[in-house]
């Protein structure tokens, strides 16, 4: 699992690469827990290369959800593979998080 | 040599000595009553006596037991040495009695005593000779053993000459005797046993050997004096065999004495090496006796001090790695903690706190001049482990230039052995702790097992079959049943995110929440409202969980309330896996498509908006398959997931069978799919088959 952060003016793009399981969830948690992340208006998560997400991986996003909402930082997922999207959907997270098909829609969101 | 012959040797030697005495008396003129014996009888009886005594001692068990060299020497001195004393005493008695008129007329007494002394001398030589054999052959090669045998055979040959009365001319006899003497000198060089003597034993050995030499001298002196006596008529001891054995006995004792004596200075070093080995052994044995780390450190300090003769020492341990059973982190020898802390401070101040080194003179080191102690030599050595240093050992001596590289090398062997012991003890302790944890997990597993319903509800309108398997000792999956009034049954299934002990705790919480929320509400207006509908239950459970669930944990769950009277059920899905369903009338297998958010994701009232009830009427023959993601996400070859589609296909093939058979079929297929791959998530599977209330007639 590799997490690459690409900051621009008011947007931070996180590119996830690999399988997000219990061991790699720590890497992502460290990234999301940084205090200055709340200074962005939007955090975009590129899931194109995210091949698998475990419940621990979901737990990382869930644990930061409230914090992002309180700070009015928008969390947007895009380029999500169908298998990964299914996991979000079954848990009901699709209704709670913004998941869009592509980067253009993510930037527009 | 046969035993019978051996027991015969002793009487034989006694007999031959008596004959020798008679023969000597006959020749000396003291025993005219004996008649005139031929000249050769003396030679023959003397030869036979010597032969039998030597043979007797030759076949005695070795006088050397183990490495009891001093004991051997002492017994030799107390035996033959006392013989020598006896010899002197006899001589004195004879001298005193000489002037008495009864004895003066004949040489009866003189000859008797002389013969007796000769016998004693032979016994003395035989015993000494074979004691020396044991020493020469101590830890010897087979070549030396052969050489010894040759020596014996050659000596035996000289004796044989005597026995048959052949006296070779001097120009042949003397060189032979000289050569044999040289051979004896060569054999005397084998003093290996001296190296095995301890320092104290060496002094004993020197004294005992000196005593033996004195014994020989007494005999020799006696024979020299008596030889000149005009009364002496027969038999002379100066023939090759006795000469040679006497020479060998004396020379070996002399050599042994010298070797032992000159061995003294180096004995110290040999002793020291032996002690080092012994201390190392002691250190090694501690592990096997299962002692504590503190004892290992104590023995290390003690051994190190003794080995290099240090005058003071201290051992500082790293508090982080000293070992759990070590109370103090510093050990001192002949040093008060304050003295050590002064030096410790100085060493730290000069960045010498780590590493190994020898300081020959602390006075010459800048900054070390103003110490209160007199110590000038310092040796520092860390206790190096595989991953970290366990501590540092410091040894001190008053005199400068007293430690060397050699000391450091020996001590390194000690410290590595000590570290090995410490690490071993640590390993044993960790494995014990692991064992305990395993035991506790086993208990936890049993407790959790008791939380899973063993007796499935039975009735004539449905069949239920269940399966659950945890990936670790304890898991986060759960399911439960509860009969409600009005012929209703509540079925719950759930999955706590994560695995292991944390998940197991939340699973137990969820079970408690299920049983406490599914209580009758006495204030309810209608019969149906007495128990919460599934969506209401989920909302209340979400509120209850929001206080105790970890921030990054969540629970997925589905609750079904099956109403037999109505022939329908209502359920809510809180983020849990979709329910697989076989519709008997339509002959169709499908997944219920419904929305619902997992528990613990939103921890406020807004959760209510994210959960819905779904109602469904069932008909007899319908099958409901409820499971956790451990089933559909089970991995097989190439990391492929079992998947919802494959599960659906299996139900299409088996919907007509009993619930138990459907479950068994699915599990068999799942096992075939995951064959050889580890389970990475807990698995739960429930199969419910609806039937007609009354079996059709």
Automatic annotation (TrEMBL), chain A:
<dbReference type="GO" id="GO:0043856">
    <property type="term" value="F:anti-sigma factor antagonist activity"/>
</dbReference>
<feature type="domain" description="STAS">
    <location>
        <begin position="1"/>
        <end position="109"/>
    </location>
</feature>
<dbReference type="InterPro" id="IPR002645">
    <property type="entry name" value="STAS_dom"/>
</dbReference>
<dbReference type="InterPro" id="IPR003658">
    <property type="entry name" value="Anti-sigma_ant"/>
</dbReference>
<dbReference type="InterPro" id="IPR036513">
    <property type="entry name" value="STAS_dom_sf"/>
</dbReference>
<dbReference type="Pfam" id="PF01740">
    <property type="entry name" value="STAS"/>
</dbReference>
<protein>
    <recommendedName>
        <fullName>Anti-sigma factor antagonist</fullName>
    </recommendedName>
</protein>
<comment type="similarity">
    <text>Belongs to the anti-sigma-factor antagonist family.</text>
</comment>
UniProtKB/TrEMBL annotation, chain B:
<feature type="transmembrane region" description="Helical">
    <location>
        <begin position="72"/>
        <end position="93"/>
    </location>
</feature>
<feature type="transmembrane region" description="Helical">
    <location>
        <begin position="171"/>
        <end position="189"/>
    </location>
</feature>
<dbReference type="InterPro" id="IPR036457">
    <property type="entry name" value="PPM-type-like_dom_sf"/>
</dbReference>
<dbReference type="InterPro" id="IPR003018">
    <property type="entry name" value="GAF"/>
</dbReference>
<dbReference type="InterPro" id="IPR001932">
    <property type="entry name" value="PPM-type_phosphatase-like_dom"/>
</dbReference>
<feature type="transmembrane region" description="Helical">
    <location>
        <begin position="44"/>
        <end position="60"/>
    </location>
</feature>
<feature type="transmembrane region" description="Helical">
    <location>
        <begin position="201"/>
        <end position="220"/>
    </location>
</feature>
<dbReference type="InterPro" id="IPR052016">
    <property type="entry name" value="Bact_Sigma-Reg"/>
</dbReference>
<keyword id="KW-0472">Membrane</keyword>
<dbReference type="InterPro" id="IPR029016">
    <property type="entry name" value="GAF-like_dom_sf"/>
</dbReference>
<feature type="transmembrane region" description="Helical">
    <location>
        <begin position="240"/>
        <end position="264"/>
    </location>
</feature>
<feature type="transmembrane region" description="Helical">
    <location>
        <begin position="108"/>
        <end position="127"/>
    </location>
</feature>
<feature type="domain" description="PPM-type phosphatase">
    <location>
        <begin position="459"/>
        <end position="690"/>
    </location>
</feature>
<keyword id="KW-0812">Transmembrane</keyword>
<dbReference type="Pfam" id="PF13185">
    <property type="entry name" value="GAF_2"/>
</dbReference>
<protein>
    <submittedName>
        <fullName>Serine phosphatase RsbU, regulator of sigma subunit</fullName>
    </submittedName>
</protein>
<keyword id="KW-0378">Hydrolase</keyword>
<feature type="transmembrane region" description="Helical">
    <location>
        <begin position="148"/>
        <end position="165"/>
    </location>
</feature>
<dbReference type="Pfam" id="PF07228">
    <property type="entry name" value="SpoIIE"/>
</dbReference>
<keyword id="KW-1133">Transmembrane helix</keyword>
<dbReference type="GO" id="GO:0016791">
    <property type="term" value="F:phosphatase activity"/>
</dbReference>
């Amino acid at each position: 699992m590799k997490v690459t952060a690409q900051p621009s003016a008011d947007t931070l793009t996180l590119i996830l690469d690999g399988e997000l399981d219990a061991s790699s969830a720590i890497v992502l948690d460290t990234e999301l827990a940084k205090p200055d992340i709340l200074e962005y208006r939007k955090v975009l998560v590129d899931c194109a290369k995210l091949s698998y997400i475990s419940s621990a991986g979901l737990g990382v996003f869930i644990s930061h959800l409230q914090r992002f909402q309180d700070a009015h930082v928008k969390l947007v997922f895009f380029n999500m593979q169908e298998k990964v999207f299914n996991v979000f959907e079954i848990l009901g997270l699709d209704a709670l998080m913004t998941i869009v098909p592509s980067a253009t829609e993510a930037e527009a969101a | 040599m046969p035993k019978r012959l051996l027991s015969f040797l002793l009487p034989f030697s006694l007999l031959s000595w008596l004959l020798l005495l008679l023969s000597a008396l006959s020749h000396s003129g003291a025993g005219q009553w004996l008649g005139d014996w031929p000249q050769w009888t003396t030679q023959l009886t003397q030869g036979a006596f010597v032969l039998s005594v030597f043979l007797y001692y030759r076949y005695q068990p070795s006088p050397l037991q183990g490495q009891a060299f001093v004991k051997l020497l002492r017994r030799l001195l107390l035996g033959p040495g006392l013989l020598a004393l006896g010899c002197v005493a006899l001589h004195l008695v004879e001298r005193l009695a000489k002037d008495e008129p009864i004895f003066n007329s004949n040489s009866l007494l003189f000859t008797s005593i002389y013969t007796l002394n000769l016998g004693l001398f032979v016994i003395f030589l035989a015993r000494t000779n074979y004691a020396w054999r044991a020493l020469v052959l101590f830890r010897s090669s087979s070549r030396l053993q052969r050489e010894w045998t040759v020596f014996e055979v050659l000596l035996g040959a000289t004796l044989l000459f005597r026995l048959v009365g052949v006296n070779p001319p001097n120009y042949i006899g003397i060189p032979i005797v000289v050569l044999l003497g040289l051979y004896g000198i060569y054999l005397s060089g084998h003093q290996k046993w001296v190296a095995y003597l301890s320092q104290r034993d060496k002094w004993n050995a020197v004294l005992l050997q000196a005593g033996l030499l004195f014994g020989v001298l007494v005999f020799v002196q006696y024979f020299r004096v008596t030889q000149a006596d005009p009364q002496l008529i027969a038999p002379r001891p100066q023939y090759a065999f006795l000469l040679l054995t006497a020479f060998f006995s004396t020379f070996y004792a002399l050599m042994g004495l010298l070797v032992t004596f000159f061995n003294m200075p180096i004995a110290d070093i040999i002793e020291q090496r032996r002690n080092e080995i012994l201390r190392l052994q002691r250190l090694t044995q501690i592990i096997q006796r299962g002692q504590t780390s503190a004892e290992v450190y104590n023995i290390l300090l003690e051994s190190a001090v003794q080995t290099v003769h240090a005058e003071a020492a201290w051992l500082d341990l790293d508090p982080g790695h000293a070992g759990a059973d070590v109370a103090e982190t510093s050990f001192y020898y002949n040093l008060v903690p304050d003295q050590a802390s002064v030096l410790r401070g100085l060493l730290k101040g000069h960045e010498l706190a780590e590493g190994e080194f020898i300081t020959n003179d602390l006075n010459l080191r800048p900054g070390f001049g103003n110490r209160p102690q007199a110590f000038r030599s310092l040796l520092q050595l860390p206790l190096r482990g595989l991953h970290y240093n366990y501590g540092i050992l410091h040894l001190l001596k008053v005199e400068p230039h007293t430690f060397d590289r050699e000391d450091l090398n020996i001590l390194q062997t000690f410290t590595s052995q000590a570290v090995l012991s410490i690490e071993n003890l640590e390993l044993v302790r960790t494995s014990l702790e692991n064992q305990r944890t395993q035991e506790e997990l086993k208990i936890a597993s049993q407790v959790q097992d008791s939380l899973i319903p063993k007796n499935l509800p039975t009735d004539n309108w449905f069949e239920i079959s269940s399966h659950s398997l945890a990936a670790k000792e304890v898991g986060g999956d759960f399911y439960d049943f509860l009969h409600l009034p009005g012929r209703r049954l509540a079925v719950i299934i759930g999955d706590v995110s994560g695995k292991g002990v944390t998940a197991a705790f939340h699973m137990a919480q969820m079970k408690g929440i299920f049983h406490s929320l599914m209580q009758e509400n006495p204030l309810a207006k209608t019969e149906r409202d007495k128990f919460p509908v599934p969506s209401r239950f989920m909302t209340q459970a979400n509120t209850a969980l929001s206080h105790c669930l970890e921030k990054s944990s969540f629970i997925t769950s589905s609750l079904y309330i099956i109403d037999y009277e109505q022939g329908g059920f209502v359920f809510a899905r809180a983020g849990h896996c979709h329910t697989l369903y076989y519709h008997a009338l339509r002959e169709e297998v499908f997944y219920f498509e419904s929305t619902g958010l997992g528990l613990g994701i939103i921890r406020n009232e807004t959760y209510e908006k994210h959960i819905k009830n779904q109602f469904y009427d069932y008909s007899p023959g319908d099958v409901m398959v409820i499971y956790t993601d451990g089933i559909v996400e089970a991995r097989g070859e190439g990391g492929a997931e079992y998947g919802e589609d494959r599960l659906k296909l299996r139900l299409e093939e088996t919907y007509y069978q009993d619930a138990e058979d459907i479950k068994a079929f699915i599990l068999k297929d799942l096992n075939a799919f995951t064959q050889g791959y580890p389970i990475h998530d807990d698995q739960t599977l429930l199969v419910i088959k609806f039937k007609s209330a009354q079996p059709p007639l």
